Amino acid sequence: MPAIPDNLLAATMGRKLATVRRAQGLSQHQLAQDICSQPMISHIENGTYIPNAILLAKLCERLNMPLEQALLSHYPEIDQQPEFNQQIKQLCNAHDYRGMLDYLDTTGLAEHLELATDLQTYYYYHGIAVFQELHTTTDSLRELQMALDYTFTPRQQVLTPTEILILSSISFIKSTPHTNQTDFEHVLAIVNTGRFTHYDENINILFYLYSLALYQDHHFQKAFAIANQGIDWLSNHDSHYMLADLFLLVAKTATALNDPQAATAASLKSDTLAEIFNQSRYHF
To answer: Is this model's pTM higher than 0.70 or not?
Structure first.
């Protein structure tokens, strides 16, 4: 098991808190007043100290910055639809797929969308909600393929992060016990060779879904390797999105591989991350 990148959390938090503090014209001393010491703020912003959940919440409150706004990932968004984007983000964070399906079916937004990328995003969310809530594989795959086809062509060499996200989701839904994972391997090869337009945190999901598919098919050694590759990927891109979930997968696979020491270490890290970032993890 590779070393757990403690500096990843500290660096990510520190940069974001420092950016918001400076934008509001506050000094480190003003941010720290009645909360902690100024040197502690300096350590946090420099990435040498990780605040606990209570301290982090107080700092975010002082900055008028919701904890999830400061620390959660970017979700695919529809252009000029801030209310929709915020509602979808909240439903995603709560894993409320029934609510997401109801919301998508009642907004009537799809009828007014013109950009291919916006329609792609809408049908991606709808396809995922159908799969998670109704468990209808055929309908979900049809909607996800429709979402992909808005921008993707079979001969396309360079993909957008949203296209990678959709292909990863399709690969997971299509995966069944005792089948090969050629679809996942194809997407992973695209990512490993840098054939994407730009980095976006949604690419992180590839590693989680691939490892989970392998875990569910009892390919524990490879699931362990892919989850740890994902952790390294996140560390290299200064991201924490899906990190708690990946560590949970490492813990599960390590348990299956009879490595209790690695399982305990990964489980503790997953719990810590979930508490710090106020995230609910996917349980399986």
So the answer is: yes
